[in-house]
Input
Amino acid sequence: MKKVKKLIKIDVDKCNGCRACEAICSAFHAEPKYSSSNPDKSRIRVVHDPLRDIFVPVYAGEYTDSECNGKNIYTVDGKTYDECDFCRASCPSRKLFRDPDSGLPLKCDMCEDEPPLKEPKCVEWCLNDALIYETVEEEVEEEEPTRPLEMEVGLEALVKQHGIKAVMETLSRLKS
Ligand code: SF4
Ligand code: SF4
Output
């Protein structure tokens, strides 16, 4: 079975750190849509190295409930970077890619919408063309169950933060 995979390529040299991508991502995912904008809720964050004036946009990836056991150190153009600087995971060792209100992990969903968008919002709003949207067709065995998995991950994170009792009580309140 063929599946269309969405990609966003990043041209770091073109990023000037305007952070329009962070603003529009958080606004697009606000409830209701566009009702607020908060970079802490964005699924893309721009890492800045002030010494070299480099900006690196990083997309939120998978949630992990444990920290890495080890750490790699990268040297790029003579400057040393901690592995965590460019990591896409929502993990317990930091607040990045975690909703500041609910504690839920954030993950880039490529701006899934109905009807589908022509391109993701961060790409549309990046006037410097640092973000380039592409689609590729690839062979897959079966459809990935993305939605239920995301829900499970979200619930698991809430249970870890607030306890199963509080989560169950909130769910019952919502149901009634
Ligand atoms: S909108 Fe584009 S140029 Fe601005 S910070 Fe984001 S990636 Fe960089
Ligand atoms: S593709 Fe959409 S969800 Fe992903 S970072 Fe860009 S604006 Fe946010």
